[in-house]
C-alpha cells in the first residue's frame, strides 16, 4: 500500500477543535501515515499566529526588553491545546527551556522553530504517533534553502509501521544550528517528507478548497481549480498565490509525486490536484496572481539595437551590485529592467550612476510603486485572443499598463501596473476569464 503525506497549515492546527478535524482526516484513510504540522495559526481574523508571537519575543529579548507578555500568550495557547486534547506532553519543562533560551541569546530561527516543534509534540502525543525531529533529518544550506541531502538522511527515520509526525518549517544548517525555511516553509517540509518516503501523493491541507483562480482576499468568490500542472503552480506561487510556498514543489516534482491542496474545514471537497500534465483545452487559464513592491529602471539609447553587448553590459552592472532582477523586456532602442524593491534597497543611486557612466544612454530613469500580475495557463500559448481578452478587460477598467512581459515559458503573460491599480486589475482579469 502506498503512503500519503499530509501537511497541515496553521489554521488546521490552531485549536483543539481543528486538531480533531485533522484526526478525522488521518483516520479516514489508512494510507495517511505521515503528518507534517505547522505552528498554531489564527483561530479568528484578529487572532495572533504563534510564529509571529515567537518572532516578537525574540526581537524584544534581543533588545534587552521584557518578552513576558507575548510569551505568556504562547504558553497559554499551548497549555490550553494540550489540556483540551487531554495529552500528557510535559509542556511546562519545554516552555521553561524555550524561555531560558530566549534569555540566553538563542537565534531567531531557533526561537521560531519552537512553534512547530511544540505543535508536533502535542499532535504526536494525541495521535499516538512517533515524533521525528527534523533537526535530525532535514538540512538547510547556508542561505536557508533545502539541502537535497535531506531525503536520504530523513528516509531511515521514517521506516516502520504506524503514524509519524514531523514538524514543519525547520532543520539544521551547515553549522549544525537550527535553521528555518522562509515564511510558510512547512510546505517545503511536507514535500521533503513526501520525497523521502516516496509517497503516492502529497496532501497539503489548508483553509481554502484548493488553489483558487485568484487570491480570495482580492476576489472573494474566486473559484477553486481542479487540476493544474507543476509549471502552472510554480508560476502562480512565485507570483503571489501564497497558498503554497514557491520552493515547495521541487522535491515532489522531481519524483513525479502529485500534490493535492485540500481544505481541512471541508474534507469532502476534492481540492486541487497538481500533476505533470493536464488537458488544457477546456481551461486555458488556471489563475491570476500578483505582487506589489516592484521598481523599474528604463534605459533608452538611439540605435541600441545595433550596439553589440548592450544588454549584457546592463545585466553585468546589475550583477556587480549584487542585485537580482525579475524581468528585462526590451524594445528596439530601449530596455527595462524590473526589480523587487527589497533587492534595490539603498543601492539605486549607485546603480543608476554606473549605468550612466558605462552606457551613456539618451535617457535613463526609475519608476517606483509597481505591481506585477501574472495570468497563467498551459493553454494560453496556442489560444487566439487570450491576450486581447486580457488587455480589453484591463483597458475597460481604466487601468494603464506600464509593462508587458510574456513569460518565455509561454504559459503566462505578465503585466506591470501602478500599485494603486493592482486590485482592480486582478479583479478585471479574473472576471474576463471566469465569467
Ligand atoms: P496554511 O497556514 O494552511 O499554510 P496559508 O495562509 O499559508 O495557509 O495559505 C492559505 C491562504 O492563501 C488562503 O487562506 C488565502 O488567503 C491565500 N491565498 C492567496 N492566493 C491564493 C490562491 N490563489 N488560492 C488559494 N489561496 C490563496
Ligand atoms: N509557521 C511558519 C510560518 O508562519 C511556517 C508555516 O506555517 O508554514 O511562516
Ligand atoms: Mg502556508
If you had to describe this structure to a student in words, what would you say it looks like?
The protein has 435 residues and is α/β, with parallel strands linked by helices. It folds into two domains: 4-275, Carbamate kinase; 287-433, VC0802-like. It is built from 15 helices and 15 strands. The protein has helices at 16-27, 50-62, 68-85, 91-103, 108-127, 134-137, 150-154, 186-196, 230-238, 250-253, 310-320, 341-344, 348-359, 386-396, 422-434, and strands at 4-8, 32-37, 130-131, 164-165, 170-172, 178-180, 201-206, 227-229, 259-263, 272-275, 287-300, 334-340, 363-376, 401-406, 412-418. The protein has an eight-stranded mixed beta sheet with strand order 3-4-2-1-7-9-10-8, sandwiched between helices. α2 packs antiparallel against α3 (68-85), α11 packs antiparallel against α13 (348-359) and α14 (386-396) crosses α15 (422-434). The relative contact order is 0.10. It binds adenosine-5'-diphosphate (ADP), aspartic acid (ASP) and magnesium ion. Adenosine-5'-diphosphate (ADP) binds at residues 9-12, 38, 41, 184, 206-208, 211-212, 214-217, 241-243, 287, 289.
Amino acid at each position: 500500500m502506498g503512503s500519503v503525506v499530509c501537511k497541515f497549515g496553521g489554521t488546521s492546527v490552531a485549536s483543539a477543535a481543528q486538531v480533531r478535524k485533522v484526526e478525522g482526516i488521518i483516520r479516514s484513510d489508512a494510507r495517511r501515515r505521515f503528518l507534517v504540522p505547522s505552528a498554531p495559526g489564527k483561530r479568528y481574523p484578529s487572532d495572533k499566529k504563534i510564529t509571529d508571537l515567537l518572532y516578537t519575543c525574540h526581537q524584544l529579548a534581543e533588545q534587552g526588553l521584557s518578552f513576558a507578555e507575548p510569551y505568556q500568550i504562547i504558553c497559554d495557547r499551548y497549555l490550553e491545546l494540550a489540556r483540551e486534547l487531554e495529552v500528557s506532553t510535559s509542556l511546562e519543562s519545554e516552555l521553561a527551556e524555550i524561555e531560558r533560551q530566549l534569555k540566553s541569546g538563542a537565534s531567531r530561527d531557533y526561537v521560531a522553530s519552537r512553534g512547530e516543534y511544540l505543535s508536533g509534540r502535542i499532535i504526536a502525543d494525541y495521535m499516538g504517533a512517533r515524533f521525528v525531529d527534523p533537526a535530525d533529518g532535514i538540512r538547510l544550506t547556508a542561505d536557508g534553502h533545502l539541502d537535497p541531502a535531506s531525503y536520504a538522511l530523513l528516509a531511515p527515520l521514517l521506516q516502520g509501521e504506524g503514524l509519524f509526525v514531523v514538524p514543519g518549517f525547520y532543520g539544521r544548517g551547515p553549522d549544525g544550528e537550527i535553521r528555518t525555511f522562509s515564511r510558510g516553509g512547512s510546505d517545503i517540509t511536507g514535500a521533503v517528507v513526501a520525497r523521502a518516503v516516496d509517497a503516492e501523493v502529497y496532501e497539503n491541507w489548508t483553509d481554502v478548497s484548493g488553489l483558487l483562480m485568484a487570491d480570495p482576499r482580492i476576489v472573494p468568490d474566486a473559484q477553486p481549480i481542479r487540476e493544474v500542472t507543476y509549471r502552472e503552480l510554480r508560476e502562480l506561487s512565485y507570483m503571489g498565490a501564497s497558498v503554497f510556498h514557491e520552493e515547495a514543489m521541487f522535491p515532489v516534482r522531481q519524483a513525479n509525486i502529485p500534490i493535492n491542496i485540500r481544505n481541512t474545514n471541508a474534507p469532502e471537497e476534492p481540492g486541487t490536484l497538481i500533476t505533470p500534465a493536464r488537458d488544457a483545452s477546456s481551461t486555458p487559464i488556471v489563475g491570476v496572481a500578483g505582487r506589489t513592491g516592484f521598481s523599474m529602471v528604463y534605459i533608452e539609447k538611439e540605435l541600441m539595437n545595433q550596439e553589440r553587448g548592450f544588454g549584457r553590459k546592463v545585466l553585468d552592472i546589475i550583477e556587480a551590485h549584487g542585485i537580482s532582477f525579475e524581468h528585462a523586456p526590451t524594445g528596439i532602442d530601449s530596455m527595462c529592467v524590473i526589480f523587487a524593491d527589497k533587492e534595490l534597497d539603498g543601492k539605486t543611486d549607485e546603480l543608476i550612476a554606473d549605468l550612466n557612466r558605462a552606457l551613456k544612454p539618451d535617457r535613463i530613469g526609475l519608476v517606483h510603486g509597481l505591481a506585477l500580475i501574472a495570468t497563467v495557463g498551459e493553454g494560453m500559448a496556442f489560444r487566439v485572443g487570450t491576450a486581447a481578452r486580457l488587455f480589453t478587460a484591463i483597458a475597460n477598467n481604466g487601468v494603464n499598463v506600464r509593462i508587458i512581459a510574456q513569460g518565455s515559458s509561454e504559459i503566462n503573460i505578465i503585466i506591470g501596473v501602478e500599485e494603486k491599480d493592482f486590485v482592480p486589475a486582478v479583479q478585471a482579469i479574473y472576471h474576463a476569464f471566469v465569467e
